[in-house]
Amino acid sequence: MVLHEFLVLAKRKFILFNFKLHAVELYLSTEISYKDLALQLEINNPALLAQWVQRFHADGVDGLKPNWKGRRPQVPDKPIVLTPTESKEIQDERLKQLEEENLKLRIEVAYLKELRRLRLEQEAQKQEQGLATVSEDPSN
Questions:
Q1: HEC string of 71-137?
Q2: Residue 71: inside a domain, yes or no?
Q3: How many domains are contained in the chain?
Q4: Which domain range does residue 56 map to?
Q5: Interval 8-29: pLDDT, tens
Q6: CA–CA distance, 6 with 40 (Å, rounded to integer)
Q7: Do 132 and 88 fall into the same domain?
Q8: One domain, residues 42 and 89
């Protein structure tokens, strides 16, 4: 059954952890060569078996587990638990920031209103001057 699982999964370029562990244990428990064991287990590349044994010696059983490639899935951060004092300090700081932002926005609105009033005033003066020059024309 292990061999069948290997053959099915080898087509997908993924070998079961259990099969790798079984192959390494067979190699270490017998005095068979990589090539002969690879032939027995129907592995095309004996060097692959050698890599598994090297990883097993270096990292133990964890060295045979699959190494996932690509991005790790995003896991939401754990909520930060604050003490009541820290929570109050953070709330006070946030309130202070909001009050400062509110003040800045009020000043900006007042400035823009005054700018608009002045611009409308200038346009009205230009229109009055334009009307006055037309009515003062002596050719009428």
A1: CCCCCCCCCCCCCHHHHHHHHHHHHHHHHHHHHHHHHHHHHHHHHHHHHHHHHHHHHHHHHHHHHCC
A2: no
A3: 2
A4: 2-64
A5: 544 444 567 788 888 888 888 9
A6: 13
A7: yes
A8: no
**CA–CA dist 58, 54 (Å, integer):** 6
Residue 20: the pLDDT is: 86
- The predicted pLDDT at position 118 comes to 96
Distance CA 92, CA 100 (A): 12
Do 54 and 7 reside in the same domain of the chain?
Answer: yes
Residue with tokens 């909520």: 79
| Mean pLDDT of the residues in the chain | 80
Is there a single domain that holds both residue 55 and residue 98?
no
Q: Determine contact, residues 27/37, Cβ cutoff 8 Å.
A: yes
Distance between CA 24 and CA 42 in Å, rounded?
A: 14
pLDDT digits (tens, 9 = 90+) for 98-112: 999 999 999 999 999
